[in-house]
Design a protein that fits this description.
single chain; mainly alpha; 12 helices
């Protein structure tokens, strides 16, 4: 069940990225900071609705770690959305999706989680697939600040992923997600001070992106209560492949054959790692 939730989360994560990209390209589109604020405002509204339905669901057992998850994760999303406003959605998602690989290395040192040979092989295949996609991309400009922001978001996302894994020992997914949204609003607010006169199309796309992000993060957070970081790392490599596939009909970004081969390699790696393979510490 946890694997199915995480796979669904990665597919929605790819959709979120494409919708966010569309929200910046629309007439009167959003900046990266404004997109981030909308994302977390919608998330907090969902948290408020959840509290109204199930009072007493939230608990603060480790406020310091919750604050870390919120601020670090929120900054990661801000950098990711900033990258989405400047480079193709597939490239931005691909760079951000390096975070499971980084988190796996961190988990070995911090959480003492040891991946099996199959998980290592699956990670290698997905990493190769991502390299093929990025190396054969259809970008019109060389690597720049947008790509650097995407890579920085991966490092911060890896740190946030480890904090989620630690928090899931004694916190539910809703509490962790609420901390994420609150921290994200604090991190993004200074970058969303420009005028907010936007078209109905931009608002609709930004809101749809936010809702996809809410579902994606809740499923991802919930699944980390049952999966180790190496297990989750393999499955989350599906996100860039999903983003490229969503971009074909929604953004009109036509991939080249090396990119399609890269997507196929990522999918193969995900399928290889989808079975239970990681050793528990």
């Amino acid at each position: 069940m946890a694997r199915a939730q995480l796979l669904a989360a990665t597919v929605l994560s790819g959709l979120m990225a494409v919708l966010a990209r569309l929200a910046t390209l629309a007439s009167g589109g959003f900046s990266g900071g404004q997109n981030t604020v909308v994302r977390f405002a919608v998330g907090l509204a969902c948290c408020a609705a959840y509290v109204a339905v199930r009072p007493g669901s939230f608990r603060l057992n480790r406020p310091g770690l919750l604050a870390t998850r919120g601020l670090v994760g929120g900054t990661a999303v801000l950098l990711y959305f900033w990258a989405l406003s400047r480079i193709p959605a597939g490239d931005a998602t691909l760079l951000n999706s390096l975070f499971p690989l980084i988190a796996t290395v961190m988990a070995i040192a911090v959480l003492r989680e040891r991946p099996t040979a199959r998980v290592v092989l699956a990670l290698a295949i997905t990493a190769l697939g991502m390299a093929m996609v990025l190396g054969a991309g259809t970008r019109a400009a060389p690597l720049g600040l947008g790509h650097l922001a995407g890579f920085a978001s991966a490092w911060l996302s890896a740190t946030a992923m480890l904090s989620i894994r630690a928090l899931r020992v004694d916190h539910n997914a809703a509490t962790i997600f609420a901390a994420f949204c609150l921290g994200g609003l604090v991190a993004a607010a200074p970058f969303a001070l420009q005028p907010w006169q936007h078209s109905v199309e931009a608002w609709a796309l930004a809101t749809a992106s936010a809702l996809a992000g809410v579902a994606s993060h809740l499923w991802m957070t919930h699944s980390l209560g049952a999966l180790t970081v190496p297990e989750a790392a393999v499955l989350q490599q599906l996100a860039p492949a999903a983003s490229y596939l969503w971009a074909i009909p929604l953004l009109g970004e036509t991939p080249r054959w090396p990119e399609l081969l890269g997507v196929a390699a990522v999918t193969l790696g995900v399928a290889l790692g989808a079975v239970r393979t990681a050793r528990r510490p």
